[in-house]
Design goal:
This protein is α/β, with parallel strands linked by helices and about 375 residues long. The chain has a domain at about 5-95 and about 160-195 and about 230-235 and about 290-365: Vaccinia Virus protein VP39 (Rossmann fold), CATH 3.40.50. About 20% of the residues lie in helices and about 25% in strands. It contains ten helices and 19 strands. The strands form six sheets. It has a nine-stranded mixed β-sheet with strand order 1-19-18-2-3-9-4-14-17, sandwiched between helices. It has a two-stranded antiparallel sheet with strand order 5-8. Helix 8 (about 310-320) crosses helix 9 and helix 9 runs parallel beside helix 10. The chain is globular. It starts with a strand and ends with a helix.
Length: about 375
Amino acid sequence: MPLLLQGDCLKQMQNLDDNSVDSIVTDPPYGIKFMAKKWDHNVPNVEIWQEALRVLKPGGHLLCACGTRTQHRMVVNIEDAGFEIRDVVTWMYGSGFPKSLNIGKAVDKLQGNDREISLNPLIKKQTPSKGTNCYSDYGHKTHISKGNSEYEGWGTALKPACEFFTLARKPLSEKTVAENVLKWGTGGINIDDCRVGSDTIKTNGKGTHKNTTHCAKSKDYIGETHIGRFPANLIHDGSQEVLDLFPQTKGDNRKSKPTYDKGHWGNSKSVESDRLYSDSGSAARYFYCPKASKKDRGADNKHPTVKPTALMSYLCRLITPPNGVVLDPYMGSGSTGKAAIREGYGFIGIEIDEDYHEIAKARIVA
């Protein structure tokens, strides 16, 4: 059974044994004052990461989510606590909403300038039903305005399209990774179980053959064959907006949007042909995961920053040894816990908010 603790994560981790968890996968506060929430005032401090380091086995990995604005502070605190920074995994998505001030509109308001008002071209006209409004806004403003000042078209922020997962490792206790794995079971990344897709991938065969006199290419060198592409430090949501950022490469000119293949995490299938994408082509050769759906969140889940279970499953599997225990000091509504249990791992989750803790229990234990 998972261990779900309610309270401050620093105090709760102090009750855990040294070297008792195999991995840490967590989505802590980003320190951006999100929706004016008190819990998002700062990123976790060094003391918290020191305690996380203590309970993690030597060679164990941490994957910690953060946004673009405060990633530097998150990483510095993790490193100062004693972790080795190994990489940063980028999760790209096309559904972010820009929160930018329209400077031209603000200037016109200050100067008392008139602005031209017109119907928003994104609005769909529909048959009038009840009332007099015959336009559906679909989440957009029904009308937009435009001014003539020199600041029209200027704003204050870019559209958010990615978040980062810092990949860090607790220093090894043994001289080599192999020795550390044999002693603790930790120290490596689960490459083969996190390969992307199900195509047969062959190495190029350009290896070398050593003998006592010289080093030369061997005609008999075949290379290795794997099922699926080597996992990358990039994850995308499959949206067309993201796919359009990647050029097509030789061997695949298809442009159909990939969808999640329920039979295998990370397989991207073509909507049109139901064929698996080949190794060449667009961004579908990277691990694909959309944002959390309403079904994934659950009917009663009101947490504002829910991560998709598919994403957290992939990340848990990437750094957790078989039958290992995953720790999440910032459990939130329980996406990591739900993913860890689904993958067959043990789980320890800590959440300070009582309401979110109850939501997490319902999602994880269900």
